[in-house]
Amino acid sequence: MLYIKCPHCGMRSQNEFSYGGDASVKRPELNKEISDQEWDNFVYNRKSLRGKHWELWQHLSGCRQWIKVQRDTATHEIFNTLKAEEEIN
Amino acid sequence: MSQEFRLKDIGLIKRNKKISFKFNGKKYQGYEGDTLASALLANGVHLVGRSFKYHRPRGFFGAGADEPYAVVQLYRDGETEPNIKATEQELFEGLEAKSVNCWPSVNFDIGAINNILKIFLPAGFYYKTFMWPKSFWYKVYEPFIRKAAGLGVASTKHDKERYEHKYEYCDLLIAGSGPSGLSSAYAAAKNGAKVILAEDKSRFGGSLLTSDVNIGNQSGKNWAEKIIAELKDMPNVIVKNRSQIFGYYDHNMLVMSEKISDHLPKTKKYHPNKKLWYIRAKEVLISSGSIERPIVFGNNDTPGVMLSSAAKEYMKVYGVLVGKKPLVFTNNDSGYETAIEFKKNGIDPIVLDSRENPASEIVDEAKNLGLNIKFSYVVVAAKGYKKVKSADIALISKDKKKLGKIENINCDCICVSGFWTPTIHLASQSGNKTKFDDNIDAFIPGKSKQNETTLGAANGVFSLKETLKTSFEAGNNLSKKITNIENKVSIPNIVEKKYSKHDKFWCVPLPKGKNYKRFLDFQNDVSVSDIELALREGYRSIEHVKRYTTLGMATDQGKTSNLNGLQLVSDIENKVVPSVGHTTFRPPYTPISIGAIVGREIGKHSKPTRKSPMHSWHEKNNAIFVDAGVWLRPRYYKKGDENLFEASKREAKNVRTNVGVCDVTTLGKIDIKGPDAAEFLNRVYTNAWLKLPVGKARYGVMLREDGIVMDDGTTTRISENHYHMTTTTAQAANVLSHLEYYLQLVWPELNVNVVSTTEQWAGAAIAGPNSRNLLKKLFPNNDVSNENLPFMGFMEGDLFGVKTRIFRISFSGELAYELNVESDYGKFMWEKIVELGEEFKIQPYGTEALSTLRIEMGHVAGSELDGRTIPYDNALEGLVSKKKDFIGKRSLQRLAFVAKDRQRIVGVVPIDKKTNIPEGSHLVKDAKASLPNKKLGHISASCWSVEYDNPFSLAILKDGKNMIGEKLFVMSPLKNKIIPVEIVSSHYVDPKGERVRS
Amino acid sequence: MQNYSIFSLIKNAFSNHEKWDLAWKDPSPKKEYDVVIIGGGGHGLATAYYLAKEHQITNVAIIEKGWIGGGNVGRNTTIIRSNYMHDDNGLFSEFGMDLWRRMSQDLNYNVMFSPRGIINLAHSDAQMNVYARRGNSMRLNGIDAVLLNREQVQEIIPMADFSENVRFPIFGGLMQPSAGTARHDAVAWGYARQADSMGVDIIQNCEVIGFDVSAGKITGVRTSRGDIKAKKIGLCVAGSTNILAEKLNMRLPIETHLLQACVSEPVKPVLDKVVTFGAGHFYISQSDKGEMVMGGDLDGYNSYAQRGNLPTLQHVLTEGIAMMPFLSKLKMLRTWGGIMDMSMDGSPIIDKTHIEGLYLNCGWCYGGFKATPASGWTFAHTIAQDKVHKLNAGYSLNRFNTGHLLDEKGLGTKTWIS
């Protein structure tokens, strides 16, 4: 079971969280004209590679905050966690 | 039968506590502290079972978890359990066990015919035959094979045992209580660290219980006892026996299975059978020791052939002789320890050492004791069928390829030692890339992957001195990093023998003209020739070898066979072992009780049950409940001997004619507050929300980003910056997460907060032409007139002192209201409604009537919003704003979603106005068309229209918009039904929606 | 090639089984092939077999990073079925069922196809209706399906929980009597042996490093064992699709997830059907060896690890005991993990791509094993004819753009939930 550092609550076991997928996916701005490709990239297309992966988790049974977690998809090692408003660099 | 193989003054068993037990129906005696294996051996019983494939006789090979074949069916306290290792099962009074996989008995097993046919049954034989005639595999061959396979018999009774879970955190978790485990635990505990020390056997001490060493001027065993006693007294230490750490998972989470009751005749009242510990450790010390490797020779599966370390353990721990004419066959010094132990107990063993002239302390000692030792000698084959009677032995050439003349010597057991294999499972499970150590010809852990440190024999260190030194250091260093305390313990003085090099030799060649089976995997009957065949046929990857031959896939998971298999493959393929590689170690280390893994979430408690505050009223009033997710909701209230259909019709009719009340507590409720709440709703819902006045509710539909309807419900503006959203019961949790996602990640600039209030409010829907009259009685102090509280209006009311939210919303299509009070007042509200509603002929109605009411109104619900439909499909496109953007809008432009003949909701009425239309049926143009018959749509929901007194259904139909008036067929091949129907509007009752506004 | 039969087995027994041929050779890659299939799993091997058998294209190489059959074809729970609601899924799978029924004879390799039937349990009337929708759709597509009531289910699988102490009582179930199981490794090996015998090169331990594309056309693949030219390349690497797509600068509607499965210790026959739980996600069957083969939910986060965590299995087995309480007394023997291509609507992709000569076979979620023959057959057709067959027309890549989705569960793009 993963051990995830919630930036708000500290180290917590994975069963308090729910997964939210690729954190690098950015929703296009409202009312902005965009191509089909851009929209499909947002809704459907994913990189989902082996190695470091920024992803979203929600601390569902805790502070209910969405957080960003950098995790290795091959080893499951977690390197970093950020609050929702913090930018991935 | 007396225990004629029991020694007198040796062992750790309690001789004053005699225990009776039964094996294969026969009564025996043993002592407390015995395992089933040691007790049977004490009685001279070696034949315990039959092998998986050839049904060859099988005895005891080991003395613990590595046991490949002594698997029995256990009977305890009126229950039975299959596949229990006799070497692990502790003896208790009244224990009964039987051999498995043999019929009619272990002595005379019909299946042993396979042993005669074995030349026709090489590895993978079943892939090459049983193919003709075609249907015979499933009908004839497979049932036969299935019956022959599978060890014990599973009881299909419910398990009456209880299993518990425990979550624990510690500084150091130590797996194994041998010399390294004890010393590291001791050092760490002295530094104040929180330590958990786990031992899978009943006795602590590991190899110290059987080795002839001296630590700090006392025997290894006494030193171990002293350390354990001290550890047990320390408040920062948890010491657990019968507890196996079987899995090393991510982020230093390890799982341990503690056997609490298996050694007792019966589980004590209020005690669990087993306890599963999830342990998150800061540091993990793996001191799991090593397992002796066999040497492979002809008929090496004969009962009486066993590991030399097991023979020694049976003597030293259990006071049992495994034979009176032992032959010890070794390629290293360890075999001599067993031989000397025999000698000490008055038995003269013969030692065969494959080495030419080993120079070592213990060999000299054995010589001095006058032992009969034959160097450069090997066992070629064991002789005897159900028990070893003699052994064919021979000189072996230096290159180990040529055998000398075969000699036969009498013996009743063969104790074999092929050196040691470190138990690296936990390290490997942690992700550690193990490496091959040429010095010991085995894999050892490489660089730590997680916070694991492997010590002692598990790390390939076989010197006690070295083990104690590194373990004390590791315990000390790792703990002081955590506690910042150092109370260094001095390392005791150690006396042990120096060991000489083992022989790199694990498989005795076949003598000319002989075709002995030489087994690697004893349970699955995988022999050397099977591996050779696999390689010959091109199954060359070690994974192919494993899968083709089933090597290492039995219940012992290859603990004694994998490395010999690898060695053999590398010999044949002319590769070094590391380039052959090994198959992956995965948890569990040994088979783990499924009951223990699951714990307490069984039966009624397998999932939570949620009940509304009015539940007890429903129960009292003959409600029949239905599961709605984890909620229980009244489906109908049974009157007399009514059935579901009659009751729901009555309830629905009463709503249409008088007034009904329905528990709607389960609806999801979300409180939304903040200055940007309106803007937020405007983005979340498809329709416009910026101009909703305070005190008004609005129906809304929300989409996923892929344009599919996610949920619907009403949201009410309670005050300027305060909204109350309702969701469907099923989607409540998802919708809240969805809103939080957008607020926190996508539009953090919006000043809005959301919180679930589902549990805070009890809800009752009052529906029917009399509902306003009832409302007037309920709220005498409030003006609930049509003018003051119009359709989609909201007000707060005073229900005899209880603050109530009154929403004028309707799912039934009737004049209706929804009342919310704080949950604690739910039952009060409900009883008040029923009491004052009596004069208006109120009746409670359940979900079935609710369905009927919404279906004939054409209101959509879960069966239409099934995760595949867009607003248009549900005739909700009027709620889709063309002006503003919202979640999922861009997806609605997609080709399939704007197709001219896009599916759409319609009403369906049987032509005969009588035949019920089963839900889940499909609509077709031609009921007699050949298959596959083109489906035009499906029936999503059906009811008996109480308004028109005939069946009515909703359907999602291709080109539904242009199909009104068409005649089609409803087909339900599952129910053998073909029903001619007419397509009508989905708004079957009150299409203009006048009633809700009345 | 040697024929496998009871007679050849007896004959070889008398020469100590020393005269068996290689099941497949171990060639080095040639410089050029007409078709290169990337991925030596079930689908890749089947594709090569059908290219040779149905389209007489034999200048074909399968290149495999590890050992053939090492991916999901050897890591699944061996269930074979065609009980789908959507026409595209149903008709495709039923075509596959026909291939399964004669596979042992076609391949001269016993894949032990065992049509013992699958039962999906239902735990409410609403669920019975959902199953009826699927079952009726199956029947109208010519696929066998039977709706069972509680008593009928009890007769077939009395060991399921019919007691009072049950959270979600069994209302009934949907059964596909012709569904079943097969021996997974044998499928890979059987296809490999036949493909090899028809001239296909099976090249193991050969990792793809990159692709050669010129003027919008694929020309070859660069591998750890040298560059290989190819007129056509088929990608058949479910579980690693995203890694290879990255090398082609493609982004696909696929996420890579981990699915665990486990077996109990072997016991004597007790269950002769495949059964799925309706109030959660759990499926079980008993192997010919006697092991109870069990699976359920994904671990629930993107992963390439092939190693999962216990809470997922705990959750899966909790549902197992809820369905069949006797499992409590058994022991979990072995666990393993497989890496899944989770597509965004739960259905696969078998299609051409925007690169000429490059074909895509991916997105199998956890339904890949059963699809092996039909996938190989249709993919071979798509490659050979350079156009999709009507059986895989629905499995287009651009359906995500057009909205012609095939979402059996209606869960949408949160692939980790399904």
Tally of strands of chain B? 51
Question: How many domains of chain B?
Answer: 6
Helix content of chain B: 10-25%
Oligomer: heterotrimer
How far apart the termini of chain A lie comes to 27 Å
Q: Taking Cα atoms only, what radius of gyration of chain A do you get, to the nearest Å?
A: 14 Å
CATH architecture of chain A: 2-Layer Sandwich
Provide the low-confidence segments of chain B as ranges.
none
Question: Helicity of chain A, in percent?
Answer: under 10%
CATH level 4 superfamily of the largest domain in chain B: FAD/NAD(P)-binding domain
Strand and helix order of chain A: EEEHEEE
Unreliable residue stretches of chain A = none
Overall pLDDT confidence of chain B? 96
N-to-C CA distance of chain B: 94 Å
Question: Major sheet of chain A: order of its strands?
Answer: 3-4-5-6
General shape of chain B:
elongated
Largest interface: B-C, 115 and 122 residues
Which homologous superfamily in CATH is the superfamily of chain A?
A: Folate-binding superfamily
Radius of gyration of chain B: 38 Å
Global shape of chain A: globular
Write a brief structural summary.
Chain A has 1 helix and 6 strands, in the order βββαβββ. With about 90 residues, chain A is mainly beta.
Structural notes for this entry:
The complex is a heterotrimer of chains A (89), B (998) and C (418). Chain A is mainly β. Chain A has one domain (3-25, 41-83): Folate-binding superfamily (Folate-binding fold, 2-Layer Sandwich). Chain A is built from one helix and six strands; from the N terminus they run E-E-E-H-E-E-E. Chain A has one helix spanning 36-43, and strands at residues 3-6, 10-13, 18-22, 52-58, 66-72, 78-83. In chain A, the strands form two sheets. Chain A has a four-stranded antiparallel beta sheet, with no helix packed on it. A two-stranded antiparallel sheet of chain A has the order 1-2. The model of chain A has no long low-confidence stretch (mean pLDDT 96). Chain B has six domains: 1-158, Roll (Ubiquitin-like (UB roll)), CATH 3.10.20; 163-290 and 422-483, FAD/NAD(P)-binding domain; 294-418 and 498-517, 3-Layer(bba) Sandwich (FAD/NAD(P)-binding domain), CATH 3.50.50; 519-583, Arc Repressor Mutant, subunit A (Orthogonal Bundle); 668-757, Aminomethyltransferase beta-barrel domains (Alpha-Beta Plaits); 898-997, Beta Barrel (Elongation Factor Tu (Ef-tu), domain 3), CATH 2.40.30. Chain B has 23 helices and 51 strands. The mean pLDDT of chain B is 96. By secondary structure, chain C is of the alpha/beta class. In chain C, helix 2 links the parallel strand 1 (32-38) and strand 2. The relative contact order of chain C is 0.18. The mean pLDDT of chain C is 96. Classes of the chains: A mainly beta (89), B alpha+beta (998), C alpha/beta (418).
